[in-house]
TrEMBL record:
It is an enzyme of class 5 (isomerase). Residues 472-625 form the Helicase C-terminal domain. SUPFAM superfamilies: Nucleic acid-binding proteins, P-loop containing nucleoside triphosphate hydrolases. It comes from Azospira restricta. Keywords: ATP-binding, DNA damage, DNA recombination, DNA repair, DNA-binding, Helicase, Hydrolase, Isomerase, Nucleotide-binding. Its EC number is 5.6.2.4. Plays a critical role in recombination and DNA repair. Helps process Holliday junction intermediates to mature products by catalyzing branch migration. Has replication fork regression activity, unwinds stalled or blocked replication forks to make a HJ that can be resolved. Has a DNA unwinding activity characteristic of a DNA helicase with 3'-5' polarity. GO terms for molecular function: 3'-5' DNA helicase activity; ATP binding; DNA binding; hydrolase activity. Gene3D superfamilies: P-loop containing nucleotide triphosphate hydrolases (3.40.50.300). The lineage of its organism: Bacteria, Pseudomonadati, Pseudomonadota, Betaproteobacteria, Rhodocyclales. This is ATP-dependent DNA helicase RecG. It catalyses: Couples ATP hydrolysis with the unwinding of duplex DNA by translocating in the 3'-5' direction; ATP + H2O = ADP + phosphate + H(+).
Length: 690
């Protein structure tokens, strides 16, 4: 198979190359330049444009080490037209001084590459790259590529290795003639032409189009990369389809009983998604579905109805959430809904005392029908009697291994059957991202909010006007409402965050004299946290000072005011989630974003987006644009190969084309699929098995 051997290099160099992801010759072929330098032509000193990288040829006329204003090597050079240029080296070796003196004494020519700018003595170059050449030395016949690199791997070494890999590689097409015609029809250059052009663009190649990755050669590379990702994800999807899963056939009676007890009816979107999940759970292969919906769209009841189906079919369901406060809220809500219907529910979290934890583990092993908890669910000591459905809330907060560990807890080891999996996310995922990064999942979207949700007004207020905000809180409480006050986010330290929460609580207790001010944070014991939340829910607390532990899942309809202090420190998704804690009742709700200046460009952009938009999908789209996909979905820990070259927004059309071709190739030409994946991913495809 092409490029399947290792790179021929000394062990120390091979180790450094591996840091760059360069292990096979194919990796070198696909290690494409970040930018280019044009050394295919030389300017005279007089004609050289200032402020951009250029090449000039000249002879050394003087070399000196100067000591003022600091130690530096200074050389004067003169070109054939008689014009002079100063070269200045602030960091230099003795060997450089000797080399330049040797060039002066031997009348040799220097080929210099750098930016010409104004200096004390006229035009100068600081730290130019230079080579001593013979007067008639030919100029390069291609632009000079500049590659991504790491300490200890020079551009010269990379260029040499890549040159060897290109000469030896099989750069032919892997596709049948029909598909190469299809590629040409969609404006794709031949792979060999595209990759050779990008490594060695000819003189006069359009630098701007190459560096912005808009050149036709880039189009082919980006398409092939997107195709490898689509093929890999869809192949993982189909491999899972070949595994067995329990057929959760049920009459739906338990779900109907639950719906009959609820004070609300399902929205059309909820009914549609419940039907999609119900269909999946009756299949003999594992459901792998992502349920996404904006804040307050009603994902929990959908998950509860899925659990009802598993329970009614005689299997267990597990519900895992990333934080104790969220897991506990789910537990209390599900308990209130399902225990009256005779469902046995167990609660498992890290903070339970040892005896209580053992009792709950025994419950799970003995067949508790629904087990709700945090990461504690995936500890070795936890065994399920008959797990048929795993529900993971806020799935992007869990790593691949954690999601996988829950799935391994159930099913039937003898037959290789595994539980169905429902993953939920309140961070809406833009369509191109879903198509690219979640191509191995079925995606359901709750795109409709339940009736009775009131729009939340967002206000941006500088912290210099804090007194007005305090007055606003007092006025809201006087009208019988309640308020959240969210402490500033301090990522670096949980201790600092706790200290800030305590200080904020103390200050607000003074400023809001006469009001009942509560405090909840991540370091509180579970029972203290639950007691505070319960007191807030029943109206015994007027203002709840909180860290971001209230970000998801908290539901207090009477709370109509949310103040987020130092809003500029929060991400868009967090701000949107926090804002979603109000507007859950019939009263007009307000979210105040208190910010401290001066704002960075990014912080200003984030606050503008959250101020102007309330639609989670639009906010997510803008967030993706601001941060890029890797950071947006944490894909570096999710196991999905990141797109290095294609851009999800700019290249959405290529992702769509790749999506379509991937389905056909998987069906009709598995050999071409295997070769394409070997070229692009090699062993990295194993990442997708989760």
């Amino acid at each position: 198979m092409p490029g399947s051997g290792g790179i021929k290099a000394a062990p120390a160099l091979a180790e450094k190359l591996a840091k760059l992801g360069l292990v096979r010759p194919d990796d070198l072929v696909l290690h494409l330049p970040l930018r280019y330098e044009d050394e295919t032509r030389c300017f005279t000193i007089a004609e050289a444009p200032w402020g951009e990288p250029v090449q000039v040829e000249a002879r050394v006329v003087d070399v000196a080490v100067q000591f003022r204003p600091r130690r530096q090597l200074v050389a004067r050079v003169r070109d054939a037209a008689g014009d002079e240029l100063t070269l200045r080296f602030l960091n230099f070796y003795g060997s450089q001084t000797k080399q330049l003196e040797g060039a002066r004494d031997g009348g040799r020519t220097l080929r210099l590459f750098g930016e010409v700018r104004s200096g004390f003595l006229g035009p100068e170059m600081v730290h130019p790259r230079y080579r001593v050449v013979d007067a008639e030395a030919p100029l390069p016949d291609a632009l000079t590529p500049v590659y991504p690199t790491t300490a200890g791997v020079s551009q010269t070494v990379l260029r040499k290795l890549i040159g060897v890999a290109l000469a030896d590689a099989d750069l032919g097409e892997f596709f049948p003639a029909f598909d190469t015609a299809w590629l040409a029809r969609h404006g794709m250059a031949a792979f060999a032409d595209a990759v050779r052009y990008l490594h060695h663009p000819p003189p006069g190649a359009p630098l701007a189009a190459l560096q912005s990755r808009e050149h036709p050669a880039w189009r082919r590379i980006k398409f092939d990369e997107a195709l490898a990702q689509q093929l890999s994800l869809r192949r993982a999807f189909l491999a899972r389809r070949e595994r067995g899963a329990p057929v959760l056939a049920a009459s739906g009676e338990l779900g109907r009983q639950l719906l009959a007890r609820l004070p609300f009816a399902l929205t059309g979107a909820q009914q549609r998604v419940v039907a999609e999940i119900g269909h999946d759970l009756q299949q003999p292969h594992p459901m792998q579905r992502l349920l996404q919906g904006d804040v307050g769209s009603g994902k929990t009841i959908v998950a509860a109805l899925a659990a009802c189906r598993a329970i009614e079919a005689g299997w267990q369901a597990a519900f895992m959430a990333p934080t104790e406060i969220l897991a506990e809220q789910h537990y209390l809500k599900l308990k209130a809904w399902l225990e009256p219907l005779g469902v046995r529910i167990a609660w498992l979290s890290g903070s339970l005392k040892a005896a209580a934890k053992r009792a709950m583990q025994a419950e799970a092993a003995a067949g508790a029908q629904l087990v709700v908890g945090t990461h504690a669910l995936i500890q070795d000591a936890v065994d399920f009697a008959k797990l048929g459905l795993a529900i993971v809330d806020e799935q992007h907060r869990f790593g691949v291994q954690q999601r996988l560990a829950l799935r391994k807890k159930g099913g039937d080891a003898a037959s290789g059957a595994i539980p169905h999996q429902l993953m939920m996310s309140a961070t809406p995922i833009p369509r191109t991202l879903a198509m690219s990064y979640y191509a191995d999942l079925d995606v359901s979207v709750l795109d409709e909010l339940p009736p009775g949700r009131t729009p939340v007004k967002t206000k941006l207020i500088a912290d210099a006007r804090r007194d007005e905000v305090i007055a606003g809180v007092q006025a809201a409480v006087a009208e019988g409402r309640q308020a959240y006050w969210v402490c500033p986010l301090i990522e670096e330290s949980e201790k600092l965050q706790l200290q800030t929460a305590l200080e904020t609580h103390a200050v607000l207790s003074e400023e809001l004299e006469g009001l009942r001010v509560g405090l909840v944070h991540g370091r509180l014991k579970a029972d203290e946290k639950a007691a505070t939340m319960a007191a807030f829910a029943t109206g015994e607390i007027d203002v709840l000072v909180a860290t971001t532990v209230i970000e998801v899942g908290v539901d207090v309809p009477n709370a109509s005011l949310m103040v987020i202090e130092h809003a500029e420190r929060f991400g868009l998704s967090q701000l949107h989630q926090l804002r979603g804690r109000v507007g859950r009742g019939a009263h007009e709700s307000v979210c105040v974003l208190l910010y401290a200046g001066p704002l960075s460009e990014t912080a200003r952009a984030r606050l503008k987006i959250i101020f102007e938009h309330s639609d989670g999908f639009e906010i997510a789209r803008q967030d993706l644009h601001l941060r890029g996909p890797g950071e947006f979905i944490g894909s570096r820990q999710s196991g999905v190969p990141l797109l290095r070259y294609a851009d999800l927004e700019a290249d959405a059309e290529l992702v769509e084309l790749a999506h379509g071709l991937a389905e056909r190739l998987l069906r009709d030409d598995p050999a071409a699929v295997a070769r394409h994946l070997e070229r692009w991913l090699g062993s990295r495809e194993e990442l997708l098995k989760a």
